[in-house]
Amino acid sequence: MDIRDDEFRKWSASWTHLNPDHRYELLTDHAAKSYVSESYRHRSDIVSTFERDRILHADFLRYLAILADGGVYADIDTECTRPVRTWIPSEFVQSVGCVIGIEYNASAGPLEDFKGNLSLCQWTFMARPWHPVMQQVVDSVTHMLQQQTSADQRITAGLGADIGELTGPAVRVARGSILFKTNP
User: Is pLDDT at 106 greater than 80 in this prediction?
Assistant: First the structure.
């Protein structure tokens, strides 16, 4: 990705400008490791899985942060165009605990880079702390990453693995489908 610093500043400023009452935080690699160790000290499986492979940190961290603290996650190259408080109509604010957008729906026609009929947006989403959808996503990702662990305790996802199947939008479609079917 070839993006100049001024573009990152513009995108970051869009979030703080439209949402002045929110805390904006960027987790560095070092801060992320400390954050996960502290927030998930009761889940050694999550901490050890997170620490094993740096390639998958970004996707896994976004789910872990929103599960533990709630709030809004947005990739650093995402611009905020509306205040977060307007994302949910006022009559639903108390009853909605998780908002995940649809990135791709096959009913609009097939796209080459997408598998399946539906892909959920993972570059911006929001949830209340410990929301069941996010809990199932974290549990699912943890389990799938543990299944990819080799005898030397390194996660073996790499050139041959489809990262999107392990930590990307496909995971949330699968987990979300189960929740929607079991908790209408």
Answer: no
